[in-house]
Amino acid sequence: MTFARDERLALVDSMAEFGPDAPTLCGTWTNRDLAAHLIVRERRLDTAPGLAVSRLAGHTERVRNETAARPWSRLLDEVRSGPPVWSPMYWVDGQVNMGEMFVHHEDVRRAHDGWKPRMLAGERQDALWGLARKVGRLGYRRSPVSVVLERPSGEQAAVRKAGDRRVILRGEPAELALHAFGRDQVQVETDGSATDIESVMSLERGF
């Protein structure tokens, strides 16, 4: 079973545990809203342009709201089953959905007090290290100073080059990836001047 598939099943378990009306880290979305988003993303390809083009977002939002009105058990079943065979995502699920499922699983978990990072196998942290480096180049692209990611092994990756001043973000790849995606509920250490650290930590990150 792939990392993406494991995270999908764990995400559904967490959604079921907290319930449809529980908050997430996705703004005002509840678990029900997030489940509808995932279903529409994989099953309603006509809504894809609305994710990137603001003037088309109305259609995407209407379809998501209609989907969210379905029975909770049906939403969980549809997220669990994943993209249908006719969806292009079916054939690349392991590649395109690893980050999506991992981040949204943590969106569900970390919206509640008392959360702790999960212990992930080394190969999965390695996969998230690759994701952190890739997403970091986008997430920190507006940083006024250079940004370097560093995992516990000491391996570093420069994801933003903006002069001699720099900030180092240290943590497990899972935490670094989440931070690059724009999440603040992470365990990340920082190294740099206070002003530079503030400039990085206050960035509007993500896509």
Keywords:
207 residues; 2 domains; four-stranded mixed sheet; 4 strands; alpha+beta; Nonspecific Lipid-transfer Protein, Chain A; 10 helices
How would you describe this protein?
This protein has 207 residues and is α+β, with helices and mostly antiparallel strands. It has two domains: 107 residues, no CATH class; 80 residues, Nonspecific Lipid-transfer Protein, Chain A (2-Layer Sandwich), CATH 3.30.1050. Helix content is 51%, strand content 9%. The chain has a four-stranded mixed beta sheet, covered by helices on one side. It starts with a helix and ends in a 6-residue tail after the last helix.
Condensed summary:
By secondary structure, this protein is of the alpha+beta class. It has helices at residues 3-18, 31-43, 57-68, 72-81, 88-91, 93-96, 98-109, 122-139, 173-180, 194-201, and strands at residues 146-150, 156-160, 166-170, 189-191. The protein has a 4-stranded mixed β-sheet with strand order 2-1-3-4, with helices on one face.
Overall geometry:
globular
Q: How many β-strands, per DSSP?
A: 4
Low-confidence runs of at least 5 consecutive residues: none
Q: List the total number of helices.
A: 10
Question: Strand order across the biggest sheet?
Answer: 2-1-3-4
Number of domains: 2
Structural class estimated from helices and strands: alpha+beta
The proportion of strand residues reads 5-15%
Distance between the termini: 28 Å
Mean pLDDT: 92
Indicate the percent of residues in helices.
Answer: 40-55%
